[in-house]
Amino acid sequence: MPDTGTSDAFVAFERVQKSYDGETLVVKDLNLTLPKGEFLTMLGPSGSGKTTCLMMLAGFETATHGEIKLDGVSINNIPPHKRGIGMVFQNYALFPHMTVAENLAFPLEVRKIGKSEREKKVKRALDMVEMGAFGGRRPAQLSGGQQQRIALARALVFEPELVLMDEPLGALDKQLREKMQFEITNLAHSLGITTVYVTHDQTEALTMSDRVAVFNDGRIQQLAPPDELYEAPQNSFVAQFIGENNTLEGVVTEVKGDVCTVKLDDGEIIEAQPVNVSKVGERTRVSIRPERVEVNKERLQEGAHTLKAKVLEFIYMGDIFRTRLSVAGNNDFVIKTRNAPDQIRLKPGEEIEIGWLPQDCRALDAP
Amino acid sequence: MTDATGDGSQSGPMLAADGTPLKKSLARALRMQKMRALMLIAPLLLFVLVTFIAPIADMLFRSVENQIVSDTIPNTTAVLEEWDGEGLPPEAAFEAAYYDIFLAAERKEHTKLGTRLNYELTGASSLFRKSGRGLDDIGEVYQDQFKDLDRDWDEAEPWAELMGDPAWLSAQAAWTKGERQPAFALRDGVSDILPKTAREYAVFARYQQTEENKSPLKEEPWTAVHTALYEDLKAGDLSGYTGPRAEMLKAADALVDSPDFETITFQAGFEDIDEDWLAPDIWRTIKLYSSSYTSGYFLNSVDMQLTPDGPEARPENERIYMLLFQRTLFMSLVITFSCILLGYPVAYILSNLPSRTANLLMILVLLPFWTSLLVRTSAWKVMLQQQGVINDVLVWLGLVADDARLAMINNQFGTIVAMTHILLPFMILPMFSVMSTIPHSYVRAAKSLGATNWTTFWRVYFPQSVPGIGAGSILVFILSIGYYITPEIVGGTTGTFISNRIAYHISSSLNWGLAAALGAILLAVVLLLYWAYDKIVGIDNVKLG
Amino acid sequence: MKLTKTLLASTALTVAAGAVAAQDMTDSMTLVSWGGAYQRSQDEAYAKPYIAMHPEVSVSWDESSNEAVAKLRAMNEAGNITWDLVDVVAADAMRLCDEGLAMEYDPDELLAPAPDGTSASDDFGDMIVSDCFIPQIVYSTTVGYRTDLVGDTPPTDICAIFDLDAYPGKRSLEKRPINNMEWALYCDGVAKDDIYDVLETPEGQDQALAKLDTIKDSVVWWSAGADTPQLLADGEVIMGSTYNGRLFSVIEEQKQPVAMLWDMQVFDLDGWIIPTGLSDEALARVKDFVYFATDTQRLADQAKYISYGPARVSSAPLVGQHEELGIDMAPHMPTDPENASNTLLYNYEFWADYRDDIDAKFQAWLAQ
């Protein structure tokens, strides 16, 4: 597991395990550190343990084993309300019986901050999310996006150093979501707060985060910055989970430095970059991103590997064309081509040749 | 779309495709929808109206209705209207009462009136019962003398010939049972010479015809007619009379004028029946309650009474209703409050458990509903009585001496305990349904914002559960305010409610007017409290589920 | 012409007369009673033998006598009488009669004469306290006490109720003024014959309440006849008033340590009333049933099942043994000379007049 070392770690999970029923582990041996100011996203399918991790950090769940440290201090036995962590909930959890201003004043009130200062801070927080005029309203009178901003403002108003967000944009429509993604990242970075963000939406994870932790089956599968995650997935789960991905299954026949040869199940032999295959004879799953596949022979770069393919379906999507092919026995091989003036439009039934560079082709574990 | 509807530049109303104004055709379409919707709920609406609204309206009406007095003795009440209420009423009042009660007795309605007046004046019941039997004594004085003079005076036909219209006589003679009777008509002019007799005979004849379905030609007139005849003969001169039965009538006239003729005043007649008729009380009461509507029941309900000088408070040893109203309100509040105290934690736990466990426990909450109310109440008797389970345990533990066992039943305490137990589900259910809609995230949010457990509960959770408390409280309060079985069984003397008195007046004393007035006041109190609740808490804040 | 008309009319008359003679009777009757052992005794003594004679008749019982007056009034207002014969106490019969809800009847026409030929009106005598009331039984409200809780000198007279020194402990009394007021005055020194004269006056009423006030804290007030037997059995009270039949069952059937105090028992009557407004067929059936059910033998038979005295003089010698226990019932009758040495008869006229007034005072006193 990658580890940036505990010295500058602001938040640290050390060998954390969690079980609800005493039989199965929901979180298996989690080690994770993040430095101050980082925006970290926990990404994964539902049931992968990401929310449990967040809740353990917030203090609503206790770790079955291991330690969680905040700023070097173990917080395992500190109740949630003493942790001083800001949190934004999936459905915002704005108190319906209080006005917006009262909601914002709540964390300040329980901290016994004087009235005038409270008001000042509430106003500043509202201005920060551009909701200055809405202090007197009830949450029910606000739109989803507005509620989201208030929830954010409330999590920030008491100036926590760490903010947790549990799928906060899940209930918004696409456009608003994109806008809020941008705003949240901006705000987090400009205030310099450390953020742990949970989502199952990979786009959100890629666009917002400094680093992304991909969760599956109670483990972090890969912890990396977004580009690395996309370009260099460490295993087939990550490759599959992040972005669109084509896989071809086969057996490693030769490993030579950073190139390996794979004999696909239909007998074709291709070259690929070995990622987590090491032995000859090992089964592997070769991953190629759809946009790295070239159908126009003339554009094929040198060293490109070609394969025969049959067009099964052609979908016009505006900015791109999406074509489903049958390649080496895989009928779900998808390629994406840009809608350029010189781009060819394939027809179903057409027999074509496709090609890609071996370095875009990653031989990963076959589960 | 036609141009007509879409063209905004056109002046005048928007038109639908067929040229009718858009508003009109919209209204028609909506009306059709409404009508259909109304048809759909019509059976229910009718059911509610018939079984719910109508009885309440009827009850409210009964609390002021008092037509029985003026309906039963209309002439008496008319005469008494002139009377100033001092001393005894004039002879005319006795006379009117004689004829009125006589007819009422024939109809068997005088005892009803007696019962009604007995609510206001003790003794009226037997007074009227006796009078129904005794009034014949007055008339018989005259009947006997007339009969002795001429047997025809006690025969049906001579009377009919004297009083009836010839056309009616022949029609009546031809009448056979099963047909419609020809309506009785007085002979022309008979009302002028024998006004009272004519009136009383007409009353008699019509009574026979309509209520007994008997022919006046076959029935001897009752004694009130003879009394009336005497009155007429005494007052008038019949020497010039030439109509039918002139001989008989003139002879009777002569008899009446003779000094030997025995007479009795109405007042004396009433005195013979019961001396109470010579006390002004009964007359004052009749006068006081002669109007068709009365505030008497309502005054009674608030421990007051109607007197000739206006409403005044009842003697102290008869005041009970205000005490019971206060006690009912107070105990209902205590019961509601104890239900909140006991029900809130239960509802809270239930709403926070996994639904399987919650459902199982909910059955325990609902279990009492499946047992008869009487069984549950009686079970409390076994628990709470002096030789009961709790006292036995306390004695066994040495906390209470054997000869100083606690009195926990047949008093307010017993009622409060038993009713709290019985009404608890009504508190828990709405609370539970409200609490289970409060997301956990609110609590977590509050804690993450730095609130302690108590602050989280008090500032965040509790305010959101208030609608459940409100709904439960309204349910429990309104139910308990009208409860009577449990207080009757375990309430003893200090734990009974106003409803127990209402039940008593409905089923035992039959004073439905008073019961209705008490019920109406109770209804008004509930509505008032509901209104106050709406003002203070807001009825929007009540969620029943 | 005239002849034919007359002939026709007379034929019609004959037909009509025939119809009256063999008048149709309904085949079902709804009898209203009190439920429990009492209703069972009526079913055994009256209804079953009647059905045995008339197999086509079905009888259903409605246990509503408790609220018969109110229900009859409601039925009457709704114009739908569903009861054919109603068992009520005499006071209720009187009220129903006053309200016009019960039918007045002629005893000698409706009821069977005694076996020796005595007319029904003579055989029942004073028991016919209202023109609508068909007497059935004499019962009494009397006092029972726990033999094991009253010490060595068991109470012998009614005033033991008021004697907290000799008999400390709770006692149960009915939650209404009737009987209690009489006993209170009697034990306060008022002569038995003067009781109602005294009770008529506000002072007398106050006197009675004052006497009751001396034991108020020790009284458990009952409203259902089953309460006192239960309270006695539980040992909740050491003595209490209830109907003599209930006490009989506690003593003889359940063998509880309870004994009866017959002193100053208050006689009351229970019987039938026929609701007004029955159809001719229903009325004919009810009359037929009543004629049978109130004859000398039937009234005597009822005493086999319950310890209430038959209302007919001629029935008394025929009272036999209890159907199950096999004990002689005569000594358990309230009317037995041994038991009836000092009694009071419920004063219907008085209570019809004073019930509302005194009840208000009584309840106000209770509530304070």
Structure description:
The complex is a heterotrimer of chains A (about 375), B (about 550) and C (about 375). Chain A has 2 domains: about 10-235, P-loop containing nucleotide triphosphate hydrolases (Rossmann fold), CATH 3.40.50.300; about 245-365, Nucleic acid-binding proteins (OB fold (Dihydrolipoamide Acetyltransferase, E2P)), CATH 2.40.50. Chain A has helices at about 50-60, 100-110, 115-130, 145-155, 175-190, 200-210, 225-230, 235-240, and strands spanning about 10-20, 25-35, 40-45, 65-70, 75, 85-90, 160-165, 195-200, 210-215, 220-225, 245-255, 260-265, 270-275, 285-290, 305-315, 320-325, 330-340, 350-355, 360-365. The longest helix of chain A is centred in the middle third of the chain and has 18 residues, at about 175-190. Chain A contains 8 helices and 19 strands. By secondary structure, chain B is mainly alpha-helical. Chain B is built from 26 helices and 2 strands. In chain B, helix 6 packs antiparallel against helix 7 (about 125-150) and helix 7 (about 125-150) packs across helix 12 (about 225-235). The two termini of chain B are about 45 Å apart. Chain C folds into 2 domains: about 25-140 and about 270-330, Periplasmic binding protein-like II (D-Maltodextrin-Binding Protein, domain 2); about 150-270 and about 335-365, Periplasmic binding protein-like II (D-Maltodextrin-Binding Protein, domain 2, 3-Layer(aba) Sandwich), CATH 3.40.190. Chain C contains 14 helices and 10 strands. In chain C, strands 1, 2, 3, 4, 5, 6, 7, 8, 9 and 10 form a 10-stranded mixed beta sheet that branches. In chain C, helix 7 (about 180-185) packs across helix 9. Chain C is globular, with a radius of gyration of 23 Å. Chains in contact: A-B, B-C. The interface of B and C includes residues 123, 319, 320, 386 and 506 of B.
Unreliable stretches covering 5 or more consecutive residues of chain A: 1-6
Question: What is the ordering of alpha helices and beta strands of chain C?
Answer: HEHEHEHHHEEHHHEHEHEHHEEH
What is the highest CATH level, the class of the largest domain in chain C? Alpha Beta
Q: How many beta strands in the DSSP annotation of chain C? A: 10
Assign an overall shape of chain C.
globular
Structural class of chain C: alpha/beta
Q: What is the mean predicted local confidence, pLDDT of chain A?
A: 89
CATH H-level homologous superfamily name of the largest domain in chain C = Periplasmic binding protein-like II
The percentage of residues in β strands of chain A lies in 25-35%
Whole-number radius of gyration of chain A?
A: 24 Å
Describe the sheet with the most strands of chain C: 10 strands, mixed
The chain-level mean pLDDT of chain C equals: 89
Second CATH tier, the architecture of the largest domain in chain C: 3-Layer(aba) Sandwich
Name the shape of chain A in a single word: elongated
Element-level helix/strand string of chain A: EEEHEEEHHHEHEHEEHHEEEEEEEEE
The CATH architecture assignment of the largest domain in chain A turns out to be 3-Layer(aba) Sandwich
Integer tally of domains of chain C:
2
What oligomeric state do these chains adopt? heterotrimer
Number of helices of chain A: 8
Instruction: Quote the distance from N terminus to C terminus of chain A.
Output: 19 Å
Q: How far apart are the first and last residues' alpha carbons of chain C, in Å?
A: 84 Å
